[in-house]
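Collaborator request, handled under Task 6.
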Amino acid sequence: MYPANFDYKRPATVDEAVALLAQHGDAAKLLAGGHSLIPAMKLRLAQPKVVVDIGRISTLSYIREAGGKLAIGAMTTHQEIAASRLLQDKCPLLPETASHIGDVQVRNKGTIGGSLAHADPAADYPATILALDAEIEVAGPNGRRTIRAGDFFVDLLQTAIAANELITEIRVPVTEGERFRAGGRRGGHLAVRRSRRRHRHRGESVSRDRRRAGAQGTDDGERDRARGDARRRWRRTAQRHSRVGRVPRAPRAGQHAPCPRARRLPRMTWCQTPA
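Structure tokens returned to the collaborator:
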């Protein structure tokens, strides 16, 4: 199906994009990678009168360390995040998450800002962004403001971004040891679960007190945050889904030792979409 008629605007700066959003209000939609908006327009589930293409705003594509955190521009693609050595070294959970998104074409075109703004609970980033307690910076007519990840996702396909605002930057903390376990997809299959697991690598035992501390949001233990399909599932916390990592026991006589690399790789489970 063909989309309804619309006007196409391509601003060169963030200020121009904000001005267009302020001018057209709810009649305008932002176009980043296009993997969410374009299919919706072709099915006429979305019929914006003005499409504002921010794909040419080069100042929104970057990965850098600033102020003790890692800053990622909203137009940074999934592939750039997955291949970033800085993120692999200092926040491995995020590039590992990005590497599981779609296929090569999707990863080279889709952007982290567009994915977060769409707020699809079947997407890969939301659970990771919540688990990392990231900060999302948005720009609007009144300047820029920062929204914590816990306040950003309001409901299914709804965020705290106003109609005249756009995401400019995502900031994540410097971390280590996180892993991304994916209930992945193949082709047209849909993913049903993503979770974040934090492992202890140094071999210490984990006491009951440290288990409780881990469940309350500290860096100890293994914690899961599973993504869901409604507001209460968005905000599922580590208290409800805490798992404490234990050191694997030494193999008994006659048993093969587990492969160290196998323990580091994400576990993949596949599911078919309902007919």
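The cover message to the collaborator said: "The radius of gyration is 20 Å. The longest strand covers residues 166-173. Please let us know whether this matches your experimental observations."
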